[in-house]
Amino acid sequence: MQLVVSSSPHLRLKVSTSWLMRQVIISLIPAAVASILLFNWRACFVISLSVLSCVISEEIILRIRKKPSAIKDGSAALTGLLLALTLPPTIKWYEIILGGFVAVFFGKQIFGGLGQNIFNPALVGRAFLAAAYPHDLTTWIKPFHFQAITCATPLALRKFDHIIVPIKDLFLGTTGGCLGETSALCLILGGIYLLVRKVIDWRIPLSMILTVSFISSIFYFLNPLNGSVLFHLFSGGFLLGAFFMATDPVTTPVTKKGRFIFGISCGILIMIIRYFGGLPEGVMYSIIFMNAFVPLINRLTLPKPFGYAKK
Amino acid sequence: MIKVEERKNPQHNLKTEKFLSPKKLYLSLRQHIGAPSKEIVKIKEKVEEAQILAEPQARVSSYLSSPKKGEVVNIDYFNHPILGRDKMIVIRCDSEEKKYSERKDIAMIPKDELLRVIKEAGVVGMGGAGFPTYIKLQPPQKVDTLIINGCECEPYLAGDYRLMIENMEGIFKGIEIITKIIEPERIFFCVEDNKPEAIKKINSILALKKYNLASTQLVVLKSAYPQGGEKQLIYKVTKRKVPSGGLPLDVGCLVHNVATCFSIYEAVYFSKPLIERIVTFAGDALETPKNIWLKIGTLIPELFERGILKFKKEPKKVIFGGPMMGIALKNLDYPILKTTGGVLFLSDEVDFEEESRCLHCARCVDVCPMGLVPLEFVKYVKNKEYARLNEIFIKDCIECGMCSFACPAKIPIVHYIKIGKLYAVGSK
Q: Domain locations in chain A?
């Protein structure tokens, strides 16, 4: 009789890393489908190429590092999908490939692979592209047009032209913007799915949403052209960031208090950039910026164990 | 909140069977916390059932009595599930069973005499830790709250539940004795809501007000692991927090398991030492799970040889205790201890997934009942930064296993914590 000897516990919850990644991918399906409906084949092309680029880059890097293949954990595919959803539909093919490579190599593998990275890999890829190809990353097209007719994003319209796009268009996604960020409806559906299946913790999205709501309601009260609460929640990359980027377990705090601090800080930074920054949108930079503070937040919010007197 | 599956069916509904005629018994001298007992018998000596075989060597130690009439055939080192190997007294048993007669003068027995009887009966905490009961019953400070623990939150195990269904009067008589000794102001009898029969019994006994108990209250808790943990239970019931490194006494509480109460009852009423207990045998490798009332010291293989237990398929893992905190055995040759609540034989119900990288998802942080950050322990142990483990309170870990249970990367966190605790000792 051959018996396995291992440390307790001998029961395990049937939740694995690859299951978690799959859940996030499933939750992004509505947003991905919406992007295909809105921007037709271009969206399909961007998503496929981005996923392929990330997965192949990761496999090559792992082979060079003499590490086992990690295709099964689904994390590279998820990075590719998230990256695609933050890109404009008209982006060029080589830019996608490069973005995917940078996301996986500089965003993840250079730190030692899954679980070791400091910054959200998809956002690293996008930040690189935004710096390398600023023009292509800020060219947007109108949805439902086969020929590309350029237009501006709702946030850019607010900032530079003082035009507020109707909430209905923001909710459904019939505006210019990145593939996955236009339809608030689809992102909310995905976010609810993740919360219900307990894939993500509610603390970060909730504190981000409340912070943005609070700040934008004050500014809306001062001047309606600043945009209403719903305008700020539904426009730009906010929901994509709040539900899918700022909840990445690897790059966010592990303590409960820390998650509130992270969410609130992200919300404040987003609103500072939107109101006072040179750019119309600041979700990506806010999250990357806060990613850098995660080790510090973790250390400062280390909870006092049960049975210790509160100071 | 992540919930651990109970897996208590059908054990919960299986009447306890008796197996009181083993051929051989292996009695460890360390079945309790504290100093090992010192044997007072010699090889080839004939012993009677309930005769004392070993005595305490220090203040925190225990007596050990013979579970059967027979002959001491060996005193040697043998497999011990917790300690690896330990000195054991081996007895070849006669089939004769001892008759115990009930004492009639219970109400007249003074406190000191009660304590002496409980001490000599070798009663220890039967919930798992095995702390000698007579010490717990002599608290150096005032205890105002007595908590009776009938939670049994470990999956699979059903012995405490069966004991409550089948011997509730005995448990209450035991509680009455404890009450007489420590005179608490109030008693909480805690049971989880997955034990409806026990709840019914407790309610009907409390309604009769038959026993001389301080104000006693039944507390029905929603079933959850690790509820039966002493500190967690005290907090749930009294909202008092046992300080880190402290004892329940520090917050005026005393917790006793229902099986311990029953042993106290048997010791006092029948002068019967702690030599028998209920053990749940379960798991998918067994043909049928069973709750068996058996002699302490019974070897697991004997139960198979005598046809009491049968394998349906080959077990891949055999666990001494519950699945969350129990110890995996390397073979079957281990004896039942005073603290053994169950032995599990698992085949397909175990999962052997390989450990992968930590995602920092913090599920371990969310589920830790002690408010610790388990992933940090893993990091420091892997980096051999043992000195830093104390800064993040490794000593407060109760090893309940929730962190490893919840981990999606399948990291055996408790394994790393156990290693960490060994190395953290001594380093400041």
A: 18-300
Residues A62-98 pLDDT 10s: 999 999 888 888 999 999 999 999 999 989 999 999 9
pTM: 0.90
Sole residue written with tokens 């005598």: B306
All domains of chain B in start order, with CATH? 106-270 (3.40.50.11540), 363-424 (no CATH)
Residue B211 DSSP class:
S
Coil, strand, or helix at residue A156? Answer: helix
CB within 8 Å of chain A, chain B residues 71-130? none
At residue B56's C-alpha, the angle toward residues B76 and B52, to 5°, is 70
- Contact residues on chain B for A252, CB-CB shorter than 8 A: 360
For residue A134 the two structure tokens come to 């600023």
Residues 6+ apart with CB under 8 A from A304: A310, A311, B371
Q: Is the pLDDT of residue A23 over 60?
A: yes
A249/B361 touch (CB, cutoff 8 Å), yes or no: yes
Hey, are the CB atoms on B4 and A11 less than 8 Å from each other? yes
Q: Report which secondary-structure segment, H or E, holds B26.
A: strand B24-28
Select from A3, A16, A305 the Cβ nearest to the Cβ of B316: A3
> Which residues from B are below 8 Å from A14, CB to CB?
351
CB burial readout B344-377, b (16+ within 10 A) else e: bbbbebbeeeeebbbbbbbbbbbbbbbebbbbbb
Question: Is this prediction's ipTM beyond 0.90?
Answer: no
Instruction: Tell if the CB–CB gap between A306 and B371 is shorter than 8 Å.
Output: yes
**Pair B240, B253: CB distance under 8 Å:** yes
Residue A133 buriedness (CB in 10 A; 0-12 / 13-18 / 19+): middle
Record: fold of A18-300: Ammonium transporter fold (1.10.3430)
